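Tokens as discussed.
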């Protein structure tokens, strides 16, 4: 697997489509991995770092801007289907979002998680500066109930001191142990410093069985 992943992520990767509702999802013909996280957790930046593209996933200073499921094809699609797809799920937990908007996000994400047979793993992003918040716990529980395997990825590790990072890491590990669908190992990342990106790439390819 190790020799393959640089080649895969340096190859063709492109935006496919946005799906505001389930009927707009792409055909379930290839494996998918999804990224979930609170608004402003650094999800778009992490996807850009993962794929080695600066502008693949849209980044914004306005949390909660992405309100649809955004899909990206990984691998050459000129002669056939992609190798796998990345789903960038709407951010959650943005306090200023209208209640109806929050409910819409929840229904869309929950329905996607419960009904997507090609979804191999979800990566749940936790901000290293804040640890697991109540809204994160709600999503972890949602994933447990949906029976979706997931792995926690801590973001923005470069924004905290090493001692603070270790303390937050232990708290996140303790929180993850309470959730049956959670993968036991965390991935610590910094999109800016490219910390943990190779480990994340291997985890993604492992999930889609490449």
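Sequence:
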């Amino acid at each position: 697997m190790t020799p393959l992943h640089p080649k895969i992520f340096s190859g063709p990767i492109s935006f496919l489509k946005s799906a505001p509702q389930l009927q707009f999802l792409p055909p379930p013909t290839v494996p998918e991995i999804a990224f979930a996280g609170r608004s402003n957790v650094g999800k778009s930046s992490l996807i850009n770092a993962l794929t080695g593209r600066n502008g693949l996933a849209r980044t914004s200073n306005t949390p909660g801007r992405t309100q649809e499921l955004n899909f990206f094809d990984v691998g050459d699609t000129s002669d056939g289907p992609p190798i796998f797809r990345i789903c960038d799920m709407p951010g959650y937990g943005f306090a200023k979002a209208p209640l109806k908007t929050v409910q819409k996000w929840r229904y869309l994400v929950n329905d996607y998680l419960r009904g997507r047979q090609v979804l191999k793993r979800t990566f749940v992003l936790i901000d290293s500066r804040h640890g697991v918040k109540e809204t994160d716990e709600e999503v972890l529980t949602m994933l447990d109930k949906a029976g979706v395997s997931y792995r926690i990825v801590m973001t923005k590790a470069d924004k905290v001191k090493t001692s603070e990072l270790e303390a937050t890491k232990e708290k996140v590990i303790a929180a993850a142990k309470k959730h049956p669908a959670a993968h036991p190992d965390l991935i610590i990342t910094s999109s800016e410093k490219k910390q943990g990106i190779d480990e994340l790439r291997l985890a993604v390819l492992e999930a889609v069985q490449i």
